[in-house]
Specification:
Blueprint lengths: L4 H13 L2 H8 L3 H15 L4 E4 L2 E4 L1 H23 L8 E6 L1 H6 L1 H11 L4 E6 L2 H9 L5 E4 L9 H7 L2 E16 L15 E4 L5 H13 L8 E4 L3 H9 L3 E6 H6 L6 E16 L5 H16 L3
Parallel strand pairs: 3-4, 3-5, 7-8, 7-9
Antiparallel strand pairs: 1-2, 5-10, 6-9, 6-10
Helix pairs in contact: 1-2, 1-3, 1-4, 2-3, 6-12
Length: 302
Amino acid sequence: MNIDLKALELFCTVARELSITLAAQRLGRAPSNVTTRIQQLESELGVSLFLRKNKRLHLSPEGEQFLVYAQKILSVSEEARQILHPDKPGGSLRIGAMESTAASRLPEALASYHRKWPEVALSVTTGPSAPMLEAVQARSVDCAFIAPAVGTEGKENSELSSMGLVGQPVFREELMLVLPEAHPPITSAADVAVGSLATFRPGCTYRSIAEEWFRKGGVNPSSIPNIQEVGSYHGMIACVCAGTSACVIPKSVIELLHEPVGIQQIPLKTIDTWLVWRENYDTPALRELISILSGAHATQGR
């Protein structure tokens, strides 16, 4: 069996899009060509990598297993190509990021990066901190912007090392408790009188911070709002403006909304955003990103 890298790239693209048509568009190939290459790969492996259910494409159990190894092989191959040219960023850099960081911090930094090194193919994937850490470990992304888990403050380096990762703080965020405009003044979590906490799915550090604040400050368990999971910060703000929810959002994200009406903001906590990557992963493309971020971090005035 001899599987080339192009076949692995094609497979990973189809696995990401879960659509032959979309994968073909992304790859600049005819859909029939993509279908044929997938069938050839399945024949070589002796398994079905994809299943069709209700006219939709899904990874088979074997396809899910193979995807992990295909991503690792492609990642190592790309890293090896870049290491051969240590003085000039090139190739690709796959970046994971929290939604807040992608919205408020990365546009300027990545625009600066692209102006200086347009030949580097930058890509950004967003998600909560915990899944982003897993993505770095699995080589699905090369680096990620995350908020350290609750309880790890001051121990971030040792926590990362136990996961085979390294990192450094790059931004400082002021987290704000956002309440409806007409909500009475509060002095503790026990004073919050809303029905729900609007937040992202589990794995979001900001969600954990909010839950811990309510647990520690509430007089009794009934003072902790129900969780309402939403998919965006705009959705969180809408829930708050409706008068039924509270949420925790970085001040930098609120500032992007241009003085939103219908809310009040209360400082809750200051927390660092870290850039993390795998131990011994040291490509020119990553080094350039760290250099640009170091300048931004200094400008932020920590």
